[in-house]
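Figure 2 data, in text form.
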Amino acid sequence: MFFVNENIPEFSVSEISNEIKKSLEEGFGYVRIKGEISGLKISKNGIVYLSLKEEKDLINAIIWPDRYRNLDVKPEEGLEVIASGKITTYSKGISTYQIHIENIELAGEGLLKAKFEKLKKQLLAEGIFDEVHKQILPKYPKSVAIVTSLTGSVIRDILKVFNDNGYPSDIFIVDVPVQGEKCPIEISEVIERLNDLNSNKIRKPDIILVARGGGSYEDLWGFNDEILVRSVFNSGIPIVSAIGHETDESLTDLVADFRAATPTAAANKIFPKIDEIYSNINSYQNRLNLFMHDEIKKSWLKLKYLKKSFSMIGTSSFQERLLTFKGIFGRLSKKSLEDNIDKKNSKLNYSGNLLLLRADNIISTKDNHRISGSTTLDFYSKNMITEKKNAVQSMLRLLESMDYKNILNRGYTVIKSSDDKIITSAKGADEHQSMRIIFSDGDLDVTHSKK
């Protein structure tokens, strides 16, 4: 049997509700509560209702319209905040307690995101993220520095890609913390030391890879540090960043010369596949061989055309000069004839040498493109030189045949009067008593006696 102490005071429902309200409000007064905003609702009359939760516990909250309008941080679903206000109770229907929020501050990830946006805006204004500052990554780096933690899976993923791709590059790994307060400081120092390398023993890397795996926003926060961001910006060595997952974004990603979605993607970007390199080399070599073949063929056809044109022009010129020679032979003095032929001889020699030089230049130009000895190129080159030399020699023989001395060698003579005029007919000879006959080997003075 249960005995009730009659000395215990008795309360009505409203009385006990008021007592609890009084005790609670006077006991706590103005409080600051940290929690995640949940169940956010705004009524038609502007009253904001929400809950602050932490794991399984929550407390209801209310924001009056006039307070809501003056808040610097507006409440958002899922945002972690510190809400300041007064604890009060509500007993209409069901008794409950709640906080009347008067101010909201960001906390946890929300606070970090606000800091992120503020620093990002500042650095954007400075132009640090502009594409004009991005350095081009070497396509085939000889040395790569990997800045990451040796205890995580990231380094194993990177080395697996390196080994699978088979690209022959020197790599060295720098072990650093990838989260916490020391993270940005130590990574910044490593970047500066790598840029200061000037030793015959240790080669300055062509690329620096800064990498870490996924994590919470707080875990990745070190890569939003201003000191680290400026170290990456000031690096004279191109930097590849691979921080977290593809959906994660850090200020280091934005300032880096190249941002990879994951550490594995970064490794594939830096270390090309050796099989693809060999394939590209073979493709380029085949294309070069085809180009050389086409160019040689074009040059061969052009030279053949020039040879034919030169031959036709030469024959026609010879015929014209022969007719001209017969027509004006009687009107030219020996000296004038020699000067004219010497001039033509010099011009023809110049043309022949120019053609040989052009042929040699064409062959020399094509030969410069040759990677290895080509039997086809040698064949065409030798034939072109031989044919051009034969063509020039033929023209020289043609020129020699046009020399009047060669005509005299065949038994012809030139007869001149005492006043050095050429006598071209018997009638003309009757007008002179003394004449001079020019043979190929000398002159003979004769006296003409009229019958």
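Caption note: The CA atoms of residues 28 and 49 lie 21 Å apart.
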